[in-house]
Amino acid sequence: MKKILIILFLVIVLVGSVGCNNDEDTNQQEPNNNQSEEEQKDNEENNNNDKDKSSAITSPLSGINTEESKINRRPVAIMFDNHKNARWQSGLSEAEIAYEYLVEGKITRYMGIYLINDPEVIGPLRSARPYYLSSLLEYDAIYAHAGGSPQAKEEIRELGIADVDAIGAAGSVFYRNNDVGKKAPHNLYTSMESIREYAENKDFNKEAEFNSFSFNKEGKDIDGDVAKDISIHYDSDNITSYKYDEELSLYMRYKDGEKHLDEYDNTILTSTNIIIQEAKTQVLDDQGRLQIDIVGKGKGTYITRGKYINITWEKTSRESKTKYYDEDVKEIILNPGITWIQVTPINPKVEIS
């Protein structure tokens, strides 16, 4: 009997000790379980972030992340006045791609290409020229301008460009801005909302078909020579300059020695990529109108992140994309951000240091 009681006592002790050990194990494991849950949450968040990065929607004009609704519409090309009495411009800083071309009188004019941004104030606007049409056709863009040369107006009709002309049917889209201290014709303004509303009412195609640039996911250095200060001499008193900000990895834009400011918010214009594109340029008539051959081939310079390389370019038709190639004849991949395309005569005076 005593043996049975002893055996029962030992069994009870053993069962109790196992239960205690299990409780201790449970208590010791609870923090580990909580920790693993936190780690799991972190992992899930990281995975979601990775998915967001990999599936991010980027603008075909700039490689900048944006909303899907912003890219499922047509780009808009806008002509900007650059006469000294027109400076500065409103809304130009929000263009994803901007062109600077010569016009009559050895002055230049800008064309901004927009997709993801909708400036509230845009202007002053100016008239069209044929070579600008060859650039905007690359983006199948809606075209906002104020009249144009006889050849440009004829070609706008022949090419079926989605036209928003301030001196035509779209006059109500534009207004004279008397609050900026400028006189006509240098005070004609509009907004992106007004342009897109007009395009909607005219039943222009809502989507565009065009080949976009290729962009790196993040900014990358190029294997080139130093390019911290750039000066492009269109004429002795018509100089476009850029100064590199290493902290921002951006070029600050200057015109004729002054900071190029956006009139709307007084911020300086910047650029991630600068392309100098040399094109055959000749005077056509006694009005000084120009022919600039941007369909064809030529040479140029690509500048980004404080470096530059020599490039070549090719455009096979008015509608086709201009392709830019490095010295290995590989199409260049741009860094995400704003691109300024400086179209110059052949062998321009350009200083890079």
Automatic annotation (TrEMBL):
Gene3D superfamilies: YerB-like. Pfam families: DUF3048 (PF11258), DUF3048_C (PF17479). InterPro entries: DUF3048_C, DUF3048_N, YerB-like_sf. Keywords: Signal. It comes from the Bacteria. The keyword Chaperone does not apply. Residues 1-20 form the signal peptide. Residues 61-204, 230-341 form the DUF3048 domain. The keyword Signal applies. Residues 36-47 have a biased composition (Acidic residues). Residues 56-65 have a biased composition (Polar residues). Transmembrane segments: none annotated. Residues 23-65 are annotated as: Disordered. This is DUF3048 domain-containing protein. It comes from Anaeromonas frigoriresistens.
